[in-house]
Amino acid sequence: MLTFLGIVLWMGLDKKPKLRNYWSKKNIYSSSLSKCMSRNRFEAILTYLHVSNNEIVPTDSNDRLIKIRPLISALNVKFQEAMNPFEDICIDETMVPFRGRVKFRQYVPSKRHRYGIKLYKLCLIGGYTWNVKVCAGKEHIPRGQSASSKTVMELVEPLLGEGRTLCTDNFYTSVQLAHELNENETHLVGTLRKKRKLNSKNVEKKALNKGEMIVKESNTGVIIGKWKDKREVMFLTTKEIPVMTESTNKTNKRGTTTNKPSTVLTYNQAKSFIDVSDQLASYGTSVRRGVKWYRKLMFELLTNTSVVNAHSVYKSTVLSPKDIVTFREELVTYLLETRQKPTMEHENLTRTDHKLTSLENQPRGRCSSCYEKLKSWEGRIQASKRTPQVRMKCTGCPQKFMCMDCFFTKHRCSKK
After folding, report:
1. Residue pLDDT, tens place only, 6-57
2. Closest CA to 43 of 70, 65, 18
3. What is the spatial distance between Cα 22 and Cα 39, in angstroms, rounded to a whole number?
């Protein structure tokens, strides 16, 4: 399966018109995929790929995501274990392009992909997806709670009571949601739609000149404000009283910096978490047409969301990280380089030339091949700690130490 995933990731980096072109013998489609896996085997795995057992799925189940639910749950657990969130978090939606037949397909004209399956994501700084939920149509909503508030509370539930700041856009932000989060010691910052329940009428109706701001705080600590730049922007915050702050990334026609409410600056910074996540996922996406909806979601979560998250963790541990495309290339190389079929193009070495011998009565040493692989991925310090130490070497290679796995991998011999 690792080889299969490596090939799928490869297809995202090297796009071809049709799936079978990757195994074509024409010079224009030259590829070495056949060394890793045959076309028939790849298509068979793609056809029968499942993450749930159809034989044990209840026939009366109302869960529309039953075919993908185990993968979503498992990935959310791993995502939350791998990264500890900072103070600011953000919730927004993204679209997985899909025009096939599924009951919960969405149409969002403002999105780049207007038709598809909607994902609700809780993202951290750097575009890391910490929690994800699939929009599967109408759900049971408790009385007194809106659908958007229910989605937010489900995504943020593991982080409640820790004093974090949640940023949302005007689809989710409401006074009702602010009260629910306040009860759970969580701040809310976001843009606000007009004519929502419990909005301040004085703030909504107040006419402003460009650059002016009006703010009103309720008895419950919810602050609603309005600021006018090119147009009026309403916002809500429970974190702090907004003040006009100099914007460091925007200037007017005269070249001088402009002032914005501190709440707007906080929201803009957190909103970029989702944008960065979507942007990084678009580099080398491997989602293809003609795939069933649950497989398309599977590929989106495994080859886009998971890879972007892995890259975020990698960047947080390395001083000079590589860009996302290079990261994908090295990931593909790692998944495929030791799984290619031996061909006549490899060096023709006999067992008499290369033998694995034991170095008795000598101190152990790090395997040179393992060290170089770990060094390229995790850096010199981690490679020094994690490289296995052995008392073996190859008689025909210059390396001082070599482990058994590297010996058989390098010389394409069969273990006997």
Report:
1. 889 988 888 888 888 888 888 788 777 788 888 899 889 988 888 888 777 7
2. 18
3. 8
User: Which residues contact residue 404 at a Cβ distance below 8 angstroms, ignoring those fewer than 6 apart?
Assistant: 356, 390, 392
For residue 348, being part of any structural domain is answered with no
**166 in any annotated domain:** yes
Domain boundary among 217, 252, 282: 282
What's the maximum distance between 2 C-alpha atoms anywhere in the chain?
A: 90
Which tokens is 193 given?
């739609």
Tell me the C-alpha distance between 271 and 202, whole Å. Answer: 28
Helix, strand or coil, per DSSP, at residue 260:
strand
Domain count, the chain: 2
Q: What is the pLDDT of residue 414?
A: 42
Place of tokens 């495994």: 302
Summarised one tens digit per residue, pLDDT across range 119-138 is: 999 999 889 999 999 998 88
Residue 106 lies in domain: 83-282
In a domain, 159, yes or no: yes
CA–CA distance, 161 with 165 (Å, rounded to integer): 11
- State the Cα–Cα distance between residues 137 and 105, nearest whole angstrom: 8
Q: Do 269 and 363 belong to one domain?
A: no
Q: What is the pLDDT of residue 352?
A: 44
220 found inside a domain: yes
User: Is the domain of 92 the same as that of 236?
Assistant: yes
Distance CA 101, CA 342 (A): 43
